[in-house]
Request: fold
Amino acid sequence: MRKILPLIFAVVIFDSCCIRNKTFPQSDRFDTHHPNFPVIECKECGDLKNSNEGFFTTEALGPSGGLSFGIELGHNYNNLRIYGSAGVSYWPFRPPTTTFSGQFGIVLFNPNFIIRPEIGIGYADWMINGKQDGLTQLHPSLPKALVGKGSYQSWQAYGGLRIKIPYSSIDLGLRVYKIETLKPTGYNSWYPGIICGFRF
Reply:
């Protein structure tokens, strides 16, 4: 499985905006050899307007407070992108914590632009489970929110920048979240998020 994962990762990165060309010998000379792998020729992505666009995503920090993995599905219009995303994070530390999160967002301007602003709202469910003694911090940005085993919810509003990396299928997102807890109530904070998406 470990040998297959890098191959899948490479295919996801190069699939959308790069062409895998067949290779041929450089000449008919006896001493030339045929490369045993295809030459990857990267090009700029085509017109992304009025098309569906999806991403596999990884987010550091953000609502999970750690590292989460998810998927984003959306549609590009002439000067707007509307999308929905969902992710999950699991930390096997003490206490084991699982986070489910979802967002609904809008990215402004032409989808072919390299840098565009985005805004959105989201929901997160933090589940603290397993054996534990005493209370634990609910989220890294909420030092006073100490809770026991259970399920805790929050909602977020966020704004940031969406950055398309030219000649690749990589899309980066830099966000600032305003987190407001629903259970327990009365806690809020600002927290950053860094997202790396791979177009499929």
